[in-house]
Design brief:
The complex is a heterodimer of chains A (168) and B (108). Chain A has 168 residues and is mainly beta. Chain A has 2 helices and 9 strands, in the order ααβββββββββ. Helix content of chain A is 12%, strand content 35%. In chain A, strands 1, 3, 5, 6, 8 and 9 form a 6-stranded mixed sheet that branches. Chain A has a 3-stranded antiparallel sheet with strand order 2-4-7, with no helix packed on it. Chain A is globular and about 45 Å long. The N and C termini of chain A lie far apart (91 Å). Chain B is 0% helix and 51% strand. Chain B is built from no helices and 7 strands. The chains are: A mainly beta (168), B mainly beta (108). At the A-B interface, strand 6 and strand 7 of A face strand 4 and strand 5 of B. Strand 6 of chain A pairs antiparallel with strand 4 of chain B.
Chain lengths: 168, 108
């Protein structure tokens, strides 16, 4: 009687990979050589809450806002998100023929998007308002100015917040 | 709780046609409605929601405020003095209470 002795070729993983690669097999990624390129730097994503988008659409009422002539003054970094000084000024003659009817402040990341609306008329002489706002976290603040001639002006300012305002 | 202690800053005197700044402040917690008390219950919203300024009987400025306005709301606006008159400032909060402060402007 013949005794058959099986012979096993001990194949290590490296050999298998090479052989498989040579043989044209598609390998799962964990078997392939690791990619060593550094991960790309991602720009921080500035969120826009749905509430903000709805409030913005409602105020725009179909108009296309234009940038310029409206200045939003906010600190670049707010140490205390509970008291962030804010000034919005609009270049406008403030005459009966051409004046700013209202200025609106919108937050893109607070629980409530509409921060304040200020209504003006030619008697104000200057389209400028000041207040203090709460910022829940680092975000863009958007100011809109609705003019008597139907034009809507828009400006955005980004504020970095160190300590967020109490769930405003 | 109603707003208290309104403070107004206007120039000591102004000429007709002059541009003046009006600075206003009032004490009010401006409770956002997002905070919880020690038991975990939500503290209801209670803010000054409207501020109206009239001068010589006509409205010269109106603001609608949301919970995003800081406690003790500070509001400043400008006025081109139309002539002699008295300011009337009214703050209304969510409970419907209105606090009124009047102040004459010395027009020279």
């Amino acid at each position: 009687m013949a005794v058959r002795t099986a012979t096993y070729t001990l194949m290590n993983r490296r050999a298998f990979v090479l052989a498989a690669g040579a043989g044209g097999l598609a390998l799962p990624s964990w078997l392939q050589a690791a990619e060593t390129a550094p991960a790309p730097v991602m720009a921080p994503f500035m969120e826009r809450t749905q509430q903000f988008q709805d409030a913005l659409s409602a105020l725009l009422a179909g108009a296309t806002p234009i940038e310029g002539k409206i200045l939003v003054e906010l600190p670049e970094i707010a140490e205390n998100g509970n008291f962030v000084p804010l000034t919005v000024s609009v270049e406008s003659p403030m005459t009966d023929a051409d004046y700013v009817k209202s200025i609106h402040i919108l937050s893109t990341a607070n629980p409530v998007a509409r921060v304040g609306s200020f209504h003006l008329s030619p008697v104000n002489g200057l389209a400028k308002v000041q207040s203090r706002m709460r910022l829940a976290k680092t975000q863009d603040v958007v100011a809109l100015a609705l003019q008597s001639n139907g034009i809507v002006l828009i400006a955005t300012a980004m504020v970095k917040v160190t300590i967020g305002g109490c769930a405003s | 709780m109603a707003a208290t202690k309104p403070r107004i800053k206007i120039p000591e005197s102004a000429k007709s046609g002059e541009l003046i700044e009006v600075r206003t402040l009032i004490t009010h917690v401006m409770e956002t409605g997002n905070r919880k008390d020690r038991e975990g219950k939500t503290i209801p919203r209670d803010i000054v929601n409207t501020f109206v300024a009239t001068y010589a009987g006509r409205e010269v400025f109106r603001a609608e405020l949301g919970p995003g306005i800081s406690a003790n709301p500070f509001i400043a606006f400008w006025l081109k003095v139309p002539g002699p008159g008295t300011f009337e400032f009214a703050w209304t909060d969510d409970s419907g209470t209105t606090v009124v402060e009047t102040l004459p402007l010395n027009v020279v």
